[in-house]
Design brief:
The complex is a heterodimer of chains A (129) and B (367).
Chain A: H1 2-13, H2 19-37, E1 39-40, H3 42-52, H4 61-73, E2 77-84, E3 87-94, H5 96-119
Antiparallel strand pairs in A: 1-3, 2-3
Helix pairs in contact in A: 1-5, 2-4, 2-5
Chain B: H1 6-18, H2 24-41, H3 48-55, H4 65-76, H5 80-106, H6 112-137, H7 142-167, H8 172-196, H9 202-224, H10 229-258, H11 264-290, H12 296-317, H13 338-366
Classes of the chains: A alpha+beta (129), B mainly alpha (367).
Protein backbone atom coordinates (compact mmCIF):
# COMPACT_ATOMS: atom_id res chain seq x y z
CA UNK A 1 0.00 0.00 0.00
CA UNK A 2 2.68 2.46 1.07
CA UNK A 3 5.04 1.01 -1.47
CA UNK A 4 2.78 1.80 -4.40
CA UNK A 5 1.94 5.15 -2.91
CA UNK A 6 5.58 6.14 -2.61
CA UNK A 7 6.30 4.91 -6.10
CA UNK A 8 3.43 6.90 -7.49
CA UNK A 9 4.72 9.92 -5.65
CA UNK A 10 8.24 9.43 -6.91
CA UNK A 11 7.08 9.07 -10.49
CA UNK A 12 5.81 12.60 -10.31
CA UNK A 13 9.16 14.11 -9.44
CA UNK A 14 11.20 13.33 -12.44
CA UNK A 15 11.63 10.38 -14.76
CA UNK A 16 15.42 10.29 -14.30
CA UNK A 17 15.88 10.49 -10.60
CA UNK A 18 19.05 12.35 -9.75
CA UNK A 19 21.21 11.29 -6.83
CA UNK A 20 20.23 14.45 -4.90
CA UNK A 21 16.58 13.43 -5.01
CA UNK A 22 17.36 9.90 -3.91
CA UNK A 23 19.69 11.08 -1.14
CA UNK A 24 16.90 13.04 0.52
CA UNK A 25 14.47 10.15 0.36
CA UNK A 26 16.82 7.25 1.02
CA UNK A 27 15.99 6.89 4.70
CA UNK A 28 12.30 6.90 3.92
CA UNK A 29 12.69 4.30 1.18
CA UNK A 30 14.76 1.99 3.39
CA UNK A 31 12.53 2.32 6.45
CA UNK A 32 9.37 1.77 4.42
CA UNK A 33 10.80 -1.22 2.61
CA UNK A 34 11.82 -2.83 5.89
CA UNK A 35 8.34 -2.22 7.26
CA UNK A 36 6.85 -4.12 4.37
CA UNK A 37 9.40 -6.92 4.20
CA UNK A 38 10.30 -7.46 7.87
CA UNK A 39 14.01 -8.10 7.57
CA UNK A 40 16.40 -7.57 4.69
CA UNK A 41 20.12 -7.40 3.99
CA UNK A 42 21.92 -4.72 2.02
CA UNK A 43 22.09 -6.29 -1.38
CA UNK A 44 18.48 -7.39 -1.08
CA UNK A 45 17.42 -3.78 -0.48
CA UNK A 46 19.18 -2.44 -3.56
CA UNK A 47 17.90 -5.32 -5.67
CA UNK A 48 14.35 -4.91 -4.42
CA UNK A 49 14.26 -1.16 -5.03
CA UNK A 50 15.66 -1.64 -8.48
CA UNK A 51 13.09 -4.32 -9.25
CA UNK A 52 10.12 -2.37 -7.85
CA UNK A 53 11.01 0.80 -9.73
CA UNK A 54 12.02 -1.02 -12.87
CA UNK A 55 15.52 0.34 -12.56
CA UNK A 56 14.46 3.94 -12.21
CA UNK A 57 15.79 4.18 -8.71
CA UNK A 58 19.14 2.57 -8.13
CA UNK A 59 20.41 2.99 -4.62
CA UNK A 60 24.15 3.31 -4.60
CA UNK A 61 26.06 1.26 -2.08
CA UNK A 62 28.07 4.34 -1.15
CA UNK A 63 24.89 5.94 0.18
CA UNK A 64 23.06 2.87 1.46
CA UNK A 65 25.57 1.51 3.96
CA UNK A 66 26.39 4.76 5.75
CA UNK A 67 22.63 5.31 6.08
CA UNK A 68 22.02 1.80 7.41
CA UNK A 69 24.80 2.16 9.97
CA UNK A 70 23.57 5.53 11.18
CA UNK A 71 19.95 4.30 11.42
CA UNK A 72 21.20 1.35 13.46
CA UNK A 73 23.18 3.63 15.76
CA UNK A 74 20.16 5.89 16.21
CA UNK A 75 18.11 2.92 17.34
CA UNK A 76 15.78 2.79 14.34
CA UNK A 77 17.13 -0.56 13.13
CA UNK A 78 18.30 -3.76 14.76
CA UNK A 79 20.46 -6.42 13.19
CA UNK A 80 20.84 -10.17 13.12
CA UNK A 81 23.95 -11.84 11.84
CA UNK A 82 23.94 -15.01 9.80
CA UNK A 83 26.98 -16.88 8.62
CA UNK A 84 27.06 -17.83 4.97
CA UNK A 85 30.19 -19.92 4.51
CA UNK A 86 33.09 -17.70 5.41
CA UNK A 87 31.14 -14.46 5.32
CA UNK A 88 28.65 -12.78 7.59
CA UNK A 89 25.31 -11.44 6.42
CA UNK A 90 23.63 -8.72 8.43
CA UNK A 91 19.85 -8.65 8.35
CA UNK A 92 18.25 -5.35 9.21
CA UNK A 93 14.79 -4.96 10.72
CA UNK A 94 12.83 -2.11 12.29
CA UNK A 95 12.75 -1.51 16.01
CA UNK A 96 9.53 -0.14 17.50
CA UNK A 97 11.09 3.32 17.31
CA UNK A 98 11.91 2.59 13.67
CA UNK A 99 8.28 1.65 12.97
CA UNK A 100 7.20 5.02 14.23
CA UNK A 101 9.88 6.88 12.31
CA UNK A 102 8.90 5.00 9.14
CA UNK A 103 5.27 6.18 9.41
CA UNK A 104 6.37 9.73 10.15
CA UNK A 105 8.81 9.80 7.26
CA UNK A 106 6.30 8.37 4.78
CA UNK A 107 3.60 10.81 5.83
CA UNK A 108 6.03 13.68 5.67
CA UNK A 109 7.23 12.72 2.22
CA UNK A 110 3.67 12.18 0.93
CA UNK A 111 2.69 15.60 2.20
CA UNK A 112 5.81 17.09 0.70
CA UNK A 113 5.06 15.49 -2.68
CA UNK A 114 1.57 16.90 -2.61
CA UNK A 115 2.89 20.35 -1.88
CA UNK A 116 5.46 19.98 -4.64
CA UNK A 117 2.76 18.95 -7.10
CA UNK A 118 0.92 22.12 -6.25
CA UNK A 119 4.04 24.26 -6.25
CA UNK A 120 5.22 22.96 -9.59
CA UNK A 121 1.72 23.30 -10.99
CA UNK A 122 1.36 19.63 -11.80
CA UNK A 123 -2.06 19.63 -10.25
CA UNK A 124 -4.40 22.63 -10.23
CA UNK A 125 -5.08 22.89 -6.49
CA UNK A 126 -3.62 21.90 -3.14
CA UNK A 127 -5.35 18.83 -1.74
CA UNK A 128 -4.92 16.91 1.49
CA UNK A 129 -2.19 14.32 1.68
CA UNK B 1 25.66 -18.82 -10.82
CA UNK B 2 29.18 -18.40 -9.57
CA UNK B 3 29.84 -20.04 -6.28
CA UNK B 4 32.58 -18.20 -4.43
CA UNK B 5 35.54 -20.09 -3.04
CA UNK B 6 37.02 -19.30 0.38
CA UNK B 7 40.13 -17.95 -1.32
CA UNK B 8 38.02 -15.51 -3.31
CA UNK B 9 36.11 -14.39 -0.24
CA UNK B 10 39.39 -13.87 1.63
CA UNK B 11 40.76 -11.94 -1.33
CA UNK B 12 37.78 -9.57 -1.37
CA UNK B 13 37.95 -9.04 2.36
CA UNK B 14 41.65 -8.22 2.42
CA UNK B 15 41.22 -5.97 -0.62
CA UNK B 16 38.44 -4.04 1.13
CA UNK B 17 40.64 -3.70 4.17
CA UNK B 18 43.57 -2.40 2.15
CA UNK B 19 41.31 0.13 0.45
CA UNK B 20 40.47 1.74 3.77
CA UNK B 21 37.33 -0.06 5.01
CA UNK B 22 38.54 -0.32 8.58
CA UNK B 23 35.39 -1.00 10.58
CA UNK B 24 34.54 -4.67 10.64
CA UNK B 25 30.81 -4.13 10.58
CA UNK B 26 30.94 -2.15 7.38
CA UNK B 27 33.43 -4.58 5.83
CA UNK B 28 31.12 -7.54 6.54
CA UNK B 29 28.28 -5.69 4.85
CA UNK B 30 30.29 -4.77 1.79
CA UNK B 31 31.82 -8.24 1.52
CA UNK B 32 28.39 -9.85 1.55
CA UNK B 33 27.11 -7.28 -0.92
CA UNK B 34 29.94 -7.88 -3.37
CA UNK B 35 29.57 -11.64 -3.01
CA UNK B 36 25.85 -11.30 -3.75
CA UNK B 37 26.56 -9.25 -6.86
CA UNK B 38 29.07 -11.80 -8.08
CA UNK B 39 26.79 -14.73 -7.33
CA UNK B 40 23.75 -13.18 -8.94
CA UNK B 41 25.06 -11.07 -11.78
CA UNK B 42 28.34 -12.54 -13.00
CA UNK B 43 28.27 -14.70 -16.07
CA UNK B 44 29.88 -18.10 -15.73
CA UNK B 45 32.56 -17.46 -18.35
CA UNK B 46 33.78 -14.12 -16.91
CA UNK B 47 36.94 -14.17 -14.83
CA UNK B 48 36.38 -13.54 -11.09
CA UNK B 49 39.17 -10.95 -10.63
CA UNK B 50 38.32 -9.12 -13.82
CA UNK B 51 34.67 -8.98 -12.81
CA UNK B 52 35.55 -7.83 -9.30
CA UNK B 53 37.60 -4.92 -10.70
CA UNK B 54 34.70 -4.02 -12.96
CA UNK B 55 32.02 -3.88 -10.26
CA UNK B 56 34.03 -2.22 -7.52
CA UNK B 57 33.76 1.34 -8.97
CA UNK B 58 29.96 1.11 -8.37
CA UNK B 59 30.69 1.71 -4.71
CA UNK B 60 32.47 5.07 -4.90
CA UNK B 61 33.25 8.21 -6.85
CA UNK B 62 37.01 8.46 -6.28
CA UNK B 63 38.02 5.75 -3.85
CA UNK B 64 36.41 3.12 -1.70
CA UNK B 65 37.35 4.75 1.59
CA UNK B 66 34.67 7.42 0.89
CA UNK B 67 32.10 4.95 2.14
CA UNK B 68 34.01 4.52 5.40
CA UNK B 69 34.40 8.29 5.83
CA UNK B 70 30.72 8.89 5.13
CA UNK B 71 29.73 6.22 7.66
CA UNK B 72 32.10 7.66 10.26
CA UNK B 73 30.74 11.15 9.68
CA UNK B 74 27.15 10.02 10.06
CA UNK B 75 27.98 8.11 13.23
CA UNK B 76 30.29 10.71 14.72
CA UNK B 77 27.95 13.59 13.97
CA UNK B 78 24.87 11.83 15.11
CA UNK B 79 24.48 14.82 17.38
CA UNK B 80 25.14 17.26 14.56
CA UNK B 81 21.65 18.68 14.55
CA UNK B 82 21.46 18.87 18.33
CA UNK B 83 24.76 20.71 18.30
CA UNK B 84 23.48 23.13 15.68
CA UNK B 85 20.41 23.74 17.77
CA UNK B 86 22.49 24.41 20.89
CA UNK B 87 24.68 26.70 18.80
CA UNK B 88 21.65 28.71 17.73
CA UNK B 89 20.20 28.87 21.23
CA UNK B 90 23.49 29.83 22.87
CA UNK B 91 24.04 32.45 20.15
CA UNK B 92 20.61 33.92 20.79
CA UNK B 93 21.21 33.78 24.56
CA UNK B 94 24.53 35.58 24.13
CA UNK B 95 22.93 38.38 22.13
CA UNK B 96 19.97 38.81 24.48
CA UNK B 97 22.06 38.63 27.68
CA UNK B 98 24.70 41.03 26.41
CA UNK B 99 22.21 43.62 25.15
CA UNK B 100 20.13 43.37 28.34
CA UNK B 101 23.30 43.56 30.42
CA UNK B 102 24.44 46.69 28.59
CA UNK B 103 21.00 48.30 28.99
CA UNK B 104 20.88 47.45 32.71
CA UNK B 105 24.37 48.84 33.11
CA UNK B 106 23.41 52.11 31.40
CA UNK B 107 20.37 52.56 33.61
CA UNK B 108 22.22 51.38 36.74
CA UNK B 109 19.72 48.59 37.34
CA UNK B 110 20.71 45.65 39.56
CA UNK B 111 21.82 42.44 37.82
CA UNK B 112 23.74 44.08 34.99
CA UNK B 113 26.98 42.32 35.95
CA UNK B 114 25.33 38.91 36.15
CA UNK B 115 23.72 39.36 32.73
CA UNK B 116 26.97 40.40 31.06
CA UNK B 117 28.89 37.56 32.70
CA UNK B 118 26.30 34.96 31.68
CA UNK B 119 26.39 36.35 28.14
CA UNK B 120 30.17 36.10 28.09
CA UNK B 121 30.07 32.54 29.41
CA UNK B 122 27.53 31.34 26.89
CA UNK B 123 29.60 32.98 24.15
CA UNK B 124 33.05 31.78 25.12
CA UNK B 125 32.23 28.43 26.70
CA UNK B 126 29.31 27.19 24.58
CA UNK B 127 28.99 29.14 21.35
CA UNK B 128 32.60 29.42 20.20
CA UNK B 129 33.73 25.84 21.05
CA UNK B 130 30.66 24.44 19.27
CA UNK B 131 31.44 26.65 16.31
CA UNK B 132 34.93 25.13 16.15
CA UNK B 133 33.54 21.59 16.19
CA UNK B 134 31.01 22.38 13.50
CA UNK B 135 33.59 24.22 11.40
CA UNK B 136 35.87 21.18 11.56
CA UNK B 137 33.08 19.14 10.00
CA UNK B 138 32.72 21.51 7.06
CA UNK B 139 33.96 20.28 3.73
CA UNK B 140 36.67 22.88 3.57
CA UNK B 141 40.37 22.29 3.14
CA UNK B 142 42.39 21.16 6.14
CA UNK B 143 44.38 24.40 6.28
CA UNK B 144 41.21 26.49 6.36
CA UNK B 145 39.87 24.37 9.20
CA UNK B 146 43.09 24.74 11.17
CA UNK B 147 43.35 28.48 10.61
CA UNK B 148 39.73 29.09 11.53
CA UNK B 149 39.95 26.95 14.63
CA UNK B 150 43.05 28.87 15.69
CA UNK B 151 41.18 32.14 15.27
CA UNK B 152 38.20 30.88 17.24
CA UNK B 153 40.44 29.64 20.07
CA UNK B 154 42.00 33.10 20.24
CA UNK B 155 38.50 34.56 20.33
CA UNK B 156 37.66 32.27 23.27
CA UNK B 157 40.76 33.46 25.13
CA UNK B 158 39.98 37.09 24.38
CA UNK B 159 36.40 36.76 25.63
CA UNK B 160 37.62 34.90 28.69
CA UNK B 161 40.10 37.74 29.28
CA UNK B 162 37.34 40.35 29.16
CA UNK B 163 35.24 38.23 31.53
CA UNK B 164 38.18 37.82 33.91
CA UNK B 165 38.69 41.58 33.81
CA UNK B 166 35.06 42.21 34.74
CA UNK B 167 35.27 39.64 37.54
CA UNK B 168 38.66 40.99 38.75
CA UNK B 169 40.19 37.55 38.36
CA UNK B 170 43.96 37.19 37.89
CA UNK B 171 45.69 37.09 34.50
CA UNK B 172 42.89 39.00 32.79
CA UNK B 173 45.32 41.47 31.25
CA UNK B 174 47.65 38.73 30.04
CA UNK B 175 44.78 36.78 28.47
CA UNK B 176 43.46 39.84 26.69
CA UNK B 177 46.83 41.16 25.63
CA UNK B 178 48.33 37.99 24.20
CA UNK B 179 45.16 36.82 22.47
CA UNK B 180 44.80 40.22 20.79
CA UNK B 181 48.47 40.24 19.87
CA UNK B 182 48.31 36.76 18.32
CA UNK B 183 44.99 37.52 16.66
CA UNK B 184 46.06 40.74 14.99
CA UNK B 185 49.62 39.99 14.04
CA UNK B 186 49.60 36.23 13.44
CA UNK B 187 46.09 34.97 12.81
CA UNK B 188 44.93 37.67 10.39
CA UNK B 189 48.04 37.53 8.16
CA UNK B 190 47.86 33.71 8.09
CA UNK B 191 44.15 33.88 7.32
CA UNK B 192 44.80 36.32 4.52
CA UNK B 193 47.71 34.42 2.97
CA UNK B 194 46.02 31.02 3.07
CA UNK B 195 42.78 32.23 1.51
CA UNK B 196 43.71 35.12 -0.73
CA UNK B 197 44.86 32.95 -3.63
CA UNK B 198 41.48 31.31 -3.96
CA UNK B 199 39.67 33.48 -6.53
CA UNK B 200 36.23 32.65 -5.09
CA UNK B 201 37.18 33.78 -1.61
CA UNK B 202 39.46 36.63 -2.65
CA UNK B 203 37.05 39.49 -2.05
CA UNK B 204 35.56 38.16 1.19
CA UNK B 205 39.01 37.36 2.51
CA UNK B 206 40.25 40.87 1.82
CA UNK B 207 37.20 42.49 3.44
CA UNK B 208 37.32 40.19 6.48
CA UNK B 209 41.04 40.74 6.94
CA UNK B 210 40.65 44.52 6.87
CA UNK B 211 37.81 44.35 9.40
CA UNK B 212 39.72 42.03 11.71
CA UNK B 213 42.94 44.04 11.49
CA UNK B 214 41.00 47.22 12.23
CA UNK B 215 39.22 45.78 15.25
CA UNK B 216 42.31 43.91 16.51
CA UNK B 217 44.52 46.95 15.98
CA UNK B 218 42.18 49.24 17.88
CA UNK B 219 41.96 46.72 20.70
CA UNK B 220 45.72 46.31 20.74
CA UNK B 221 46.42 50.04 20.81
CA UNK B 222 44.10 50.31 23.80
CA UNK B 223 46.30 47.96 25.82
CA UNK B 224 49.53 49.67 25.01
CA UNK B 225 48.11 53.10 25.67
CA UNK B 226 48.97 54.42 29.12
CA UNK B 227 47.04 57.42 30.50
CA UNK B 228 47.03 60.53 28.36
CA UNK B 229 49.89 63.02 28.02
CA UNK B 230 47.61 65.73 29.40
CA UNK B 231 47.10 63.74 32.58
CA UNK B 232 50.83 63.18 32.87
CA UNK B 233 51.55 66.92 32.52
CA UNK B 234 48.91 67.68 35.12
CA UNK B 235 50.51 65.29 37.57
CA UNK B 236 53.95 66.83 37.00
CA UNK B 237 52.59 70.36 37.48
CA UNK B 238 50.87 69.24 40.65
CA UNK B 239 54.07 67.71 41.95
CA UNK B 240 56.07 70.88 41.25
CA UNK B 241 53.41 72.97 43.01
CA UNK B 242 53.44 70.80 46.12
CA UNK B 243 57.21 70.57 46.10
CA UNK B 244 57.66 74.34 45.84
CA UNK B 245 55.23 75.00 48.67
CA UNK B 246 57.00 72.45 50.85
CA UNK B 247 60.30 74.13 50.02
CA UNK B 248 58.89 77.52 51.11
CA UNK B 249 57.68 75.98 54.35
CA UNK B 250 61.06 74.41 54.98
CA UNK B 251 62.83 77.74 54.46
CA UNK B 252 60.41 79.42 56.81
CA UNK B 253 60.99 76.62 59.33
CA UNK B 254 64.74 77.22 59.19
CA UNK B 255 64.18 80.85 60.12
CA UNK B 256 61.86 79.91 62.96
CA UNK B 257 64.32 77.33 64.20
CA UNK B 258 67.02 79.98 64.65
CA UNK B 259 64.96 81.23 67.61
CA UNK B 260 65.12 77.77 69.16
CA UNK B 261 68.87 77.19 69.00
CA UNK B 262 68.97 76.08 72.61
CA UNK B 263 65.80 73.97 72.50
CA UNK B 264 67.03 70.38 72.15
CA UNK B 265 63.52 69.06 71.53
CA UNK B 266 63.12 71.40 68.55
CA UNK B 267 66.58 70.55 67.21
CA UNK B 268 65.84 66.86 67.59
CA UNK B 269 62.51 67.11 65.78
CA UNK B 270 64.14 69.11 63.02
CA UNK B 271 66.82 66.45 62.67
CA UNK B 272 64.23 63.68 62.36
CA UNK B 273 62.18 65.66 59.87
CA UNK B 274 65.20 66.39 57.73
CA UNK B 275 66.33 62.76 57.66
CA UNK B 276 62.92 61.56 56.64
CA UNK B 277 62.60 64.27 54.04
CA UNK B 278 65.99 63.42 52.57
CA UNK B 279 65.14 59.72 52.31
CA UNK B 280 61.95 60.57 50.49
CA UNK B 281 63.78 62.98 48.23
CA UNK B 282 66.17 60.19 47.33
CA UNK B 283 63.27 57.92 46.43
CA UNK B 284 61.74 60.61 44.23
CA UNK B 285 65.06 61.02 42.49
CA UNK B 286 65.38 57.27 41.89
CA UNK B 287 61.85 57.04 40.52
CA UNK B 288 62.19 59.99 38.19
CA UNK B 289 65.56 58.77 36.95
CA UNK B 290 64.39 55.27 36.10
CA UNK B 291 60.84 56.43 35.32
CA UNK B 292 59.55 53.30 37.03
CA UNK B 293 58.46 52.27 40.51
CA UNK B 294 59.85 48.75 40.21
CA UNK B 295 62.71 49.06 42.73
CA UNK B 296 61.00 51.42 45.13
CA UNK B 297 60.11 48.85 47.79
CA UNK B 298 63.70 48.21 48.92
CA UNK B 299 63.86 51.90 49.93
CA UNK B 300 60.51 51.77 51.63
CA UNK B 301 61.58 48.80 53.76
CA UNK B 302 64.65 50.64 54.99
CA UNK B 303 62.47 53.61 55.97
CA UNK B 304 60.34 51.74 58.50
CA UNK B 305 62.54 52.67 61.43
CA UNK B 306 62.82 56.36 60.54
CA UNK B 307 59.08 56.73 60.11
CA UNK B 308 58.48 54.96 63.43
CA UNK B 309 60.77 57.17 65.44
CA UNK B 310 59.34 60.26 63.71
CA UNK B 311 55.78 59.21 64.57
CA UNK B 312 56.76 58.51 68.21
CA UNK B 313 58.21 61.99 68.41
CA UNK B 314 55.03 63.48 66.91
CA UNK B 315 52.93 61.60 69.44
CA UNK B 316 55.13 62.83 72.33
CA UNK B 317 54.85 66.45 71.23
CA UNK B 318 51.10 66.07 71.60
CA UNK B 319 50.08 68.99 69.44
CA UNK B 320 46.70 68.78 67.76
CA UNK B 321 47.76 70.07 64.32
CA UNK B 322 50.52 67.47 63.90
CA UNK B 323 49.75 64.33 61.86
CA UNK B 324 51.65 61.06 61.92
CA UNK B 325 53.19 59.83 58.67
CA UNK B 326 51.58 56.70 57.33
CA UNK B 327 53.95 54.16 55.80
CA UNK B 328 51.15 51.94 54.45
CA UNK B 329 50.64 53.79 51.15
CA UNK B 330 54.40 53.55 50.53
CA UNK B 331 54.25 49.75 50.56
CA UNK B 332 52.06 49.82 47.46
CA UNK B 333 54.02 52.37 45.50
CA UNK B 334 55.36 49.68 43.17
CA UNK B 335 51.80 49.07 41.93
CA UNK B 336 51.24 52.60 40.62
CA UNK B 337 52.92 54.56 37.86
CA UNK B 338 55.86 56.85 38.59
CA UNK B 339 53.93 60.15 38.37
CA UNK B 340 51.41 59.04 40.96
CA UNK B 341 54.18 57.61 43.18
CA UNK B 342 56.08 60.91 43.11
CA UNK B 343 52.88 62.75 43.98
CA UNK B 344 52.27 60.52 46.99
CA UNK B 345 55.86 61.05 48.14
CA UNK B 346 55.82 64.83 47.69
CA UNK B 347 52.58 65.08 49.65
CA UNK B 348 54.34 63.28 52.48
CA UNK B 349 57.24 65.71 52.24
CA UNK B 350 54.75 68.56 52.46
CA UNK B 351 53.15 66.94 55.51
CA UNK B 352 56.55 66.74 57.23
CA UNK B 353 57.19 70.43 56.55
CA UNK B 354 53.70 71.39 57.74
CA UNK B 355 54.20 69.37 60.94
CA UNK B 356 57.45 71.12 61.69
CA UNK B 357 55.96 74.50 60.89
CA UNK B 358 52.98 73.94 63.17
CA UNK B 359 55.29 72.80 65.95
CA UNK B 360 57.57 75.81 65.65
CA UNK B 361 54.63 78.25 65.38
CA UNK B 362 53.21 76.65 68.48
CA UNK B 363 56.48 77.27 70.33
CA UNK B 364 56.49 80.88 69.17
CA UNK B 365 52.92 81.42 70.34
CA UNK B 366 53.76 80.05 73.80
CA UNK B 367 56.48 82.65 74.30
Amino acid sequence: MYKTRILKILMYICPMYSSELIKGTLKTIVLNLLRDKGRMYGYEITAKVKELTEGKIQITEGALYPTLHSLEKNGELETEKEFIGKRVRKYYSLTSQGQETASQKVNELADFMNTMKFLLDLEPKLGNA
Amino acid sequence: MHSLSDVEVDFIESDLKSRGIVSEDLRDNLLDHICCIIENEKREETDFYEYYDRILPRFFKKELSEIQTETDNLLKFKNFYIMKKILNYSGAATVVLTILGALFKSFHLPGAGILIILGGFSFSIIYLPLLIILKLKDEESKIDKLVQSFGLILAIFLTAGVLFKIMHWPYANNLMFYSTLLFTFIFVPVYFITRFRNPEKKFNTAVNSVLMIAVGGIFYSMFDMSYSKKYEQLMVANHIYIHENAEKLRNSNKRLLQNEATNSEAQNFHQLSQELNNSIEEMVKKISESNSTRDVLQFVNSMDEKVNSYNIQVAELNIQELSAIEIKPFKRLNEVNSELAINVLSRTQQQIAVNENCYLTNLLAQK
